[in-house]
Amino acid sequence: MEKSIGTARTARGIFLLRSFSGPLAAISVSLLVLSGCWTTTSSEPEVDPIALAAAIRDLGLDQLRQGNYSMAIRKLQRAELKNPEDPLVYYGLGEAFRRKGLLAEAEVNLLKSLELSPDPHAQSYQLAVLTLSVLYIQEERYEEAVVLCQVLIDDPTYERPWTALTNRGWAQYKSEQFEAARVSYQEALGYRSTYAVAHFNLGILEQERGRWLDAVRQLDLAAKSREMSSEARSEAYFRLGEIYMTLGRKDEAIEKFGLAIEKAPDGEWAEKSRSRLEVLL
Q1: What residues pair up with 28 in beta bridges, in sequence order?
Q2: Using alpha carbons only, what angle is made at residue 212 by residues 211 and 217, rounded to the nearest 5 degrees?
Q3: 228 and 139: one domain?
Q4: Is 81 part of any domain?
Q5: Cβ atoms 174, 140 nearer than 8 A
Q6: What pLDDT does residue 11 have?
Q7: pLDDT tens string 47-62
Q8: pLDDT of residue 156
Q9: Do 257 and 269 contact (CB within 8 A), yes or no?
Q10: Whole-number pLDDT of residue 175
């Protein structure tokens, strides 16, 4: 799940669009004198198909980054036709299909990306492993997700270990391995103390274990972070409202439910917050 999801709600990838600067066409004209006659010839060199495939692939990855999943699939499938050996193409297809909820197709493409990746330290391999861990969490295949996360955690070349640790923590939490999940989140925050998804997931864990003060601290950090989507921030505020409601702190509960509505007025957590406010007001 930045694909970390940490939760199944968040799993984000960042892709760089590389520019294709090769000539689309080049024409050379030569004039030759043969037996007193002028002859003109022209030639058009072929565009390198691998370079063209890479350019189309990068356009597809950019569409994926922007959330245009159908267009990303179209571009990436065109790139696949031109170069069926590019692991980044299959990673992109896997993530696009996953985002559209087509999980079987996503898994096929992600496994293909792993098969084609040149080595376990390659960017394509790491991206596919992280995304596949998110997919397995969605499918409730938690043990498999933990194994994949551990691959990245143990890889010294992986530049974002906190994302893999947060994913591992969520898989452990969903498997009711609560202490192991807490350790995973704390390790993630040891790498990046401001990582909002880890704070959010840890807040959920602490809330459900009845550790109210710890939950409030973690959820408050997540709710205020611009790294989180509006819907995730709305959920964080809703959870804070529930905690304050449980503690009998009515005014603070009302405030947090109001913020949950403000962050995502048409979302699930706004609707739940309105129901809670009907009780409190």
Answers
A1: 43
A2: 105
A3: no
A4: yes
A5: yes
A6: 36
A7: 788 999 999 999 999 9
A8: 96
A9: no
A10: 97
Question: Per residue in 97-139, pLDDT tens?
Answer: 999 999 999 999 999 999 999 899 999 999 999 999 999 999 9
Domain count, the chain: 2
CA distance 156 to 191: 13
Q: For residue 30, list its beta bridge partners.
A: 41
Helix (H) or strand (E) run with residue 37 in it? strand 37-43
Largest CA distance in the chain: 104
| Shared domain check, 145 and 226 | no
Cβ(68)–Cβ(100) under 8 Å? Answer: no
Strand pairing class (37-43; 28-34): antiparallel
In terms of Cα–Cα distance, which of 54, 102, 101, 99 is closest to 80?
54
Tokens of 207: 């809330």
Residues of the chain with pLDDT under 70: 1-45
- How many of the other CB atoms lie within 10 Å of CB of 189? 19
pLDDT at 46: 75
CA distances from 141 to 32, 81, 136, 267 (A): 71, 32, 5, 28
Q: Is 139 exposed, middle or buried (0-12, 13-18, 19+ CB in 10 A)?
A: middle
Do 143 and 281 have their domain in common?
no
Give the range of the structural domain holding residue 232, as residue numbers without chain letter. 220-281
Q: CA of 157: how far to CAs of 6, 120, 121, in Å?
A: 20, 10, 6
Hey, which bits of 26-115 come out as E strands?
A: 28-34, 37-43
Rounded Cα distance, 228 and 198, in Å: 11
* pTM assigned to the model: 0.81
Closest by alpha carbon to 228, among 201, 255, 258? 201
Out of 152, 180, 203, a domain closes at 152
Q: Identify the pLDDT of residue 23.
A: 32
Final residue belonging to a domain, choices 136, 152, 168: 152
CA torsion, points 273, 279, 280, 281, in degrees to nearest 10?
Answer: 100
